[in-house]
Specification:
Largest sheet: 8 strands, mixed
CATH class of the domain at 5-188: Alpha Beta
Strand order of the largest sheet: 3-2-1-4-5-6-7-8
Structural class: alpha/beta
Oligomer: single chain
Order of helices and strands: EHEEHEHEHEHEHEHHHHEHEEEE
Low-confidence stretches: none
CATH architecture of the domain at 5-188: 3-Layer(aba) Sandwich
Number of helices: 11
Helix content: 25-40%
Number of strands: 13
Mean pLDDT: 88
Shape: elongated
Distance between the termini: 66 Å
Radius of gyration: 23 Å
Strand content: 5-15%
CATH superfamily of the domain at 5-188: NAD(P)-binding Rossmann-like Domain
Length: about 400
């Protein structure tokens, strides 16, 4: 006879709701709560925290740890004072959870935090006898459910929690995951925090480095940046993998830029004496400025196709397109639009999203700038196609 597992999920926002629904299986009942009204046909949504906690084996906490809106990466932020994440929402949730959670229950935090935060800020206020685990996810908006069920690794951090509790959570994930070969990293709280945030900043650094090839190719004039990037991406012996090895638009989204800002704060706090994270953010912004200057150079109205931070989502937090647009407005008086024609006159179009907008109704005698170097003429109306970062101009 199959025994139904009951779990609670607090925080049903942009990512939380999809994660909670992904957990819901034929013998797993997920009970959710959020401050705002949410609807779901896959999980049971309650009007209070108490009912989500009552008699549930695991209580997952997925409330936000935001930065100020100026720090999301859609406008320059490298010049701003470094800041830690805002833990106010997590702390408020923990105080409410303490009223109802019982000794022996397991509280699992999945929100992004800096190394040392769980041990310094959260453990001291959690009710005695409650098992606390830090379990951050490697997920992205637009692919949340797939990422949740097919993770590269599952990070489970704990201090002074019995191995039985940790292995129970591990067994829970093995039950719901589609990617059965996903590895499990059973580490301390601080190590789990570190794995999560350095995973993100590795991606930011990788994108900045590969886009540096694009900058060099543009200035040099005798280099195809894809030839160089392909050679490096095939070098798996030391460079690790081919992921994020396509020069193009810069790293975007609400997570990676802000994580680098938080790591700048950590570098100052720990007196490291150097700050690679500042350099990553600065290079991201300089690269966006160079692309903006390229668009401006044609002296036509500019249309950026792809305002969101990546294809298939509506979110603009951390959008690299908005960052490029910021520099267009800062450096020129040229008219700028997103995702639609400004008028019927010739324009300069930026194909911000790889593989998208190829069938757009381009105005006659316009110029298309493709930072992915894949778009070919789909009609005879265009004046020129610029494969940004490639020595051959079509």
């Amino acid at each position: 006879m199959t025994v139904t597992i009951n779990v609670g999920f607090i925080g049903l926002g942009k990512l939380g709701l999809e994660c909670a629904e992904a957990m819901s299986q034929h013998d797993i009942d997920v009970h959710g709560f959020d401050l705002y009204e949410r609807k779901s046909d896959k999980i049971i949504i309650h009007e209070n925290i108490k009912d989500v906690i009552y008699h549930n084996k695991f209580i997952f906490l997925a409330v936000e740890t935001p930065h100020h809106e100026y720090y999301d990466g859609s406008i320059p932020s490298s010049h701003l004072k470094s800041k830690d994440f805002n833990y106010e929402f997590v702390l408020n949730a923990l105080y409410q959870i303490n009223e109802y959670i019982e000794e022996g229950q397991t509280l699992v935090l999945i929100s992004t935090v800096l190394p040392g935060t769980c041990r310094e800020k959260f453990l001291p206020i959690i009710k005695k006898g409650v098992n606390f685990i830090y379990n951050p996810y490697l997920i992205a908006m637009g692919t949340t459910t797939w990422d949740m069920l097919n993770p590269e690794m599952v990070i489970i951090g704990s201090n002074n929690v019995s191995k039985t509790v940790v292995h129970d959570l591990e067994k829970f994930y093995k039950k719901i995951l589609q990617k059965k070969e996903s590895r499990f990293e059973l580490v301390t709280l601080d190590e789990a925090e570190c794995i999560k945030i350095f995973y993100n900043t590795f991606i930011s650094a990788k994108v900045s480095l590969v886009n540096m090839i694009q900058d060099v190719a543009e200035i040099n004039g005798n280099i195809d940046c894809d030839v160089v990037a392909d050679a490096l991406s095939n070098s798996t012996q030391r460079i690790i993998s081919k992921s994020y090895m396509k020069p193009g638009m810069g790293d975007g989204g609400p997570c990676h830029p802000r994580d680098n800002i938080a790591l700048r704060f950590l570098a100052e706090k720990l007196h490291l004496g150097y700050d690679l994270f500042d350099s990553i953010m600065t290079s991201r912004e300089v690269q966006a400025e160079k692309l903006a200057k390229k668009l401006i150079s044609f002296k036509l109205p500019i249309v950026i196709l792809g305002k969101s931070y990546k294809p298939g989502v509506s979110y603009t937090e951390g959008s690299y397109s908005l960052l490029v647009g910021h520099y267009v407005n800062k450096l020129s008086n040229i008219e700028l639009g997103f995702d639609e024609n400004i008028n019927d006159d010739p324009c300069t179009y930026l194909l911000a999203h790889r593989g998208c907008h190829y069938d757009f109704n381009f105005n006659v005698d316009s110029i298309v700038v493709d930072p992915w170097r894949e778009f070919e003429q789909n009609s005879h109306v265009l004046r020129k196609i610029i494969h940004y970062g490639k020595k051959v101009l079509l």
